[in-house]
Design brief:
Radius of gyration: 25 Å
Shape: elongated
Largest sheet: 6 strands, mixed
Distance between the termini: 70 Å
Strand order of the largest sheet: 2-1-3-8-7-6
Structural class: alpha+beta
């Protein structure tokens, strides 16, 4: 029986200093999805959706997602603008060995850097590929050059090896822009592994999301939601309405449990147990008000997923009076 090769392992990069400066953390983010195959419908973009979930779970406000072609001028314009406007920018796609993989070269021009082969990346790439069947084939100079393009980076970039079993690094420019591959599985693994290298917001800054489902039509609950958003906006709480055709509406509440003044514009509040003597606006209490007002109930993420897949939810029962419940 042929002996299987042992998996190759490499040391991950040490955690560097905070690229944004001591005491600062990421507040805003943007995603730049690069690829003609996305724009012509050949490939479904899964990476921006995964990145959006990652940002939400880590308290980052994702401000923008753009999909652009494999075009040098578009990459240069968009990358400069995003780095100027946001704390954390990712690119996805265009870092392979073929003629249309121009992300590294375009970003080098964008930030006025020459290109240079990164020896450590090339060593890891060859070590990871030497056991593959095609590795025994003799390469032409053109094939070798194409392979080495995957280790040809902007010369002054920060190169972060985020996983012991991943030879592809996250290349970071300007302390903000991180370059990722377009392959969804690899993108997700590398983004998750990058977490320790990012100055993420403290856990207290991460938002909560509560969803209430009602079988009433959106037009019936629209006036209430309009007034609710006006009351909650000063507290940083977002109200969203998402209808399911022929079924009802999901009302989404996104925010944080915020300490505030005694006057919270009529929104249900509770005492703050922090010892400060103030009042705290609890998102769960707001959700209870919404349940009563729209004849709905709070649903779990699992129930939301089932509903989106076409499965029925349990019947929504009318809520009892809030005063009786409290």
């Amino acid at each position: 029986m042929e002996e299987r090769p042992q998996p190759v392992r490499f040391p991950a990069s040490p955690i560097p200093k905070n690229p944004l400066g001591d005491g600062r953390y990421i507040r805003t983010a943007a995603a730049l999805i690069i690829g003609d195959e996305i724009l012509n419908g050949k490939t479904l973009d899964r990476n921006s959706h995964y990145f959006a979930k990652y940002c939400f779970e880590n308290g980052i406000d994702l401000k923008r997602i753009e999909v652009i072609a494999d075009d040098e001028n578009e990459i240069i314009e968009a990358s400069r603008r995003m780095v100027r406007n946001y704390d954390f920018v990712i690119t996805s796609g265009g870092i392979g060995p073929t003629h249309d993989d121009i992300t590294y070269a375009s970003l080098a021009k964008s930030f006025s850097q020459p290109l240079a082969h990164h020896s450590d990346t090339l060593e890891r790439m060859y070590a990871m590929s030497r056991h593959r069947k095609w590795a025994t084939l003799e390469q032409t100079p053109e094939q070798r050059e194409a392979m080495q393009r995957m280790g040809l980076f902007p010369a002054d970039a920060e190169v972060l090896f985020v996983g012991e079993d991943i030879w592809v690094p996250v290349v970071r420019l300007e302390g903000k822009l991180c370059i990722f591959p377009g392959i969804p599985g690899l993108f997700q693994r590398m983004l998750n592994a990058l977490t320790p290298y990012l100055p993420l917001p403290p856990k207290s800054q991460r938002p909560l999301r509560i969803q209430v489902f009602t079988s009433r039509p959106e037009s019936m609950i629209a006036p209430y939601l309009t007034s609710l958003q006006a009351r909650l906006k000063p507290h940083g709480i977002q109200v969203g309405s998402y209808p399911v055709l022929g079924e009802g509406v999901f009302v989404s509440l996104i925010g944080r449990d915020l300490a505030g003044s005694a006057n919270v514009n009529g929104v249900t509040r509770d005492r703050d147990n922090s010892g400060t003597g103030g009042n705290r606006l609890w998102l769960a209490e707001v959700a209870r008000e919404v349940e009563e007002a729209i004849g709905g109930r709070v649903v779990s993420d699992e129930e939301v997923a089932r509903k989106k897949s076409g499965e029925p939810l349990p019947e929504v029962k009318p809520q009892t009076n809030m005063k009786e419940k409290l």
